[in-house]
């Protein structure tokens, strides 16, 4: 069993992992950039080590410095959280070479599922439905033109590597293809160091549904139900909920079974997510697999009572899953709002700065706040703008919505701009309250773009 774990991340997810470790009696090591020395994760951990300057490539993405910190402190395992090195197979391999356990899947699995074009082929062989798309990658513009003609417009040009909405372009006609192809190639090269692209048919008016899975080293794989992540802005998730108001029980069961089949096909160990598109005709298609913990994992924890981070750690220790599929029961409804330091009135421009006043929503039954901010904390301009997650639980969806509205009303931050009022605008929308939304809802209904 692990006695010490290093957390190779920052912010609220680092705090989340530290808290889980403390409850398990495991000591923690926080790593931080020089500008993050006063961050909450560095204060809560048993030990903290500076691993470089503010620029993430020199600190949170600096594999050598992170591994050196782990060796120096005697950490037996590294939890990567999400983002940064969480889906980096090279880092996972380096951990193994240093005899340090990477709390996540094997490097070979990260490689297999991290490249979306390869993942498509794997899912087809496993009998999991996929979105109609290119057979292999788009090595030239002529490849892109040929595949678009075969699939029929509109199509999506997508990066094979990475995520977070980068390297994705919607193309509605051949005239727009060349510009989309070149810009997607350039963006994904800058973001991930890999400019490989592939193409999919654009499924319009679809919902983004993902299934949480857990697998151990003994071949056991379970799913923990679905999350509806359709509320997005420019392919970035804004609000998530569990379960989805769109699915019936038959579709829910079929999606869960497909996700388990997908995870078993690659011998998956750890927590992961299978992402699907769900169309207006009731069909679902595999999009990609995230081989890490997700930002939105708390909504699943709220409705299942299962601590996904602790389960991740136990799996990494070599333990079998502590439950079976029949033990998983979905109760009630949970919603998560991502609170970002940004200004919706200025094109969602990031708003770094010092928090002068902070009133976090009062607790009560079914309220959870995951955050790493505090009064006097200075939000740096170098990292993601998400500063908190508000999660509410209710016996019904409407109860969860009303509880979230109460929490947002109480959530006061001065010194930086936030998207709290924007989240309230979504929650009070009549269509949202009826569960009538898809991935275009925010752009078309809320922003009228």
Features:
alpha+beta; Rossmann fold; Dna Ligase, domain 1; 3 domains; eight-stranded antiparallel sheet; 15 helices; 22 strands
Strand order of the largest sheet: 13-12-9-10-11-14-21-19
Q: What do the pLDDT scores average to?
A: 96
Radius of gyration: 21 Å
Distance between the termini: 52 Å
Main sheet attributes: strand count, strand direction, barrel closure? 8 strands, antiparallel
Query: In percent terms, what proportion of residues is strand?
Result: 25-35%
Q: What is the CATH C-level name of the largest domain?
A: Alpha Beta
**What number of structural domains do the residues give?**
3
Q: Helix- and strand-based class?
A: alpha+beta
The number of E-state strands comes to 22
Task: Please state the second-level CATH architecture of the largest domain.
Answer: 2-Layer Sandwich
| CATH H level, superfamily name of the largest domain | ATP-grasp fold, B domain
**Count of DSSP H/I helices:** 15
- CATH fold naming of the largest domain: D-amino Acid Aminotransferase, Chain A, domain 1
Shape: globular
The portion of residues assigned to helices is 25-40%
Poorly predicted parts: none
